[in-house]
Automatic annotation (TrEMBL):
Family in the record: Belongs to the UPF0111 family.
InterPro entries given in the database record: PhoU-like_sf, Put_Phosphate_transp_reg, UPF0111_domain
Endpoints of the signal sequence: none
Superkingdom to which the source organism belongs: Archaea
Protein name: DUF47 family protein
Length: 209
């Protein structure tokens, strides 16, 4: 057994938990796309989203509990904490946006919301693949490629947001402007949080490769 294998515990519980967390984030993004594409049974869909968000909270709590009782961890404790927090932030913004849609009582979604939701979905798919890659980090370049793609998608989301707000301010209904602007910005913020996760993953890949 090499020195690295001796020092780093063979128990991969943290990687298992991160895989579960990433899968939960993907489930939330999938539900978000389903909601904005078929805007019906909104209350029920929001309830489903809240359940997914609670699952994420439970996994995050388990990660921190494990961190508190593990002496030697496969990643730096700060890296584990940052990654758990960043993944949870994506979930919070996805859930928060669906709650906004319901609470604001918007009658329908629009092309900008659908496009932003799909960008979130594409981003978290890349994140899930990158999270799987940190288990062994045999090929850090592949992890970095995933992270670069997430950054690109976030830039696309910035442009979508800009055009959506420009179009929005061509209308004259102030209440509608406020509601939709909040929703657009929350969706775009979720892509920012995806970028935060990508940055954490990129740092991990570089440091441990």
């Amino acid at each position: 057994m090499g020195i690295k294998e001796w020092v780093i515990p063979q128990d991969k519980v943290f990687f298992d938990l991160f895989d579960r967390m990433a899968q939960t984030v993907v489930s939330a993004a999938d539900l978000l796309v389903e909601l904005v594409e078929n805007f019906d049974n909104v209350k029920e869909q929001c309830h489903r989203m809240k359940q997914i968000e609670h699952q994420g909270d439970e996994i995050s709590h388990e990660i921190y509990e494990q961190l508190n009782r593990t002496f030697i961890t496969p990643l730096e404790p700060e890296e584990i904490s940052r990654l758990a927090s960043a993944l949870d932030d994506i979930l919070d913004y996805i859930d928060g946006t669906t709650q906004q849609m319901y609470n604001y009582g918007i009658p329908e979604t629009d092309d900008s919301m659908i496009e932003l939701a799909k960008l979130i979905q594409l981003s978290v798919i890349e994140i899930e693949k990158a999270v799987t890659g940190i288990r062994t980090i045999k090929n850090p370049e592949l992890i970095e490629e995933r992270c670069i793609e997430v950054n690109r998608l976030e830039n696309v989301a910035d442009n979508v947001l800009g055009h959506a707000i420009m179009d929005l301010f061509k209308t004259e209904d102030a209440i509608t402007i406020i509601k939709l602007k909040d929703i657009y910005e929350s969706l775009e913020m979720a892509t920012d949080k995806c970028e935060d996760v990508a940055n954490v993953l990129s740092d991990i890949a570089i440091r441990h490769s």
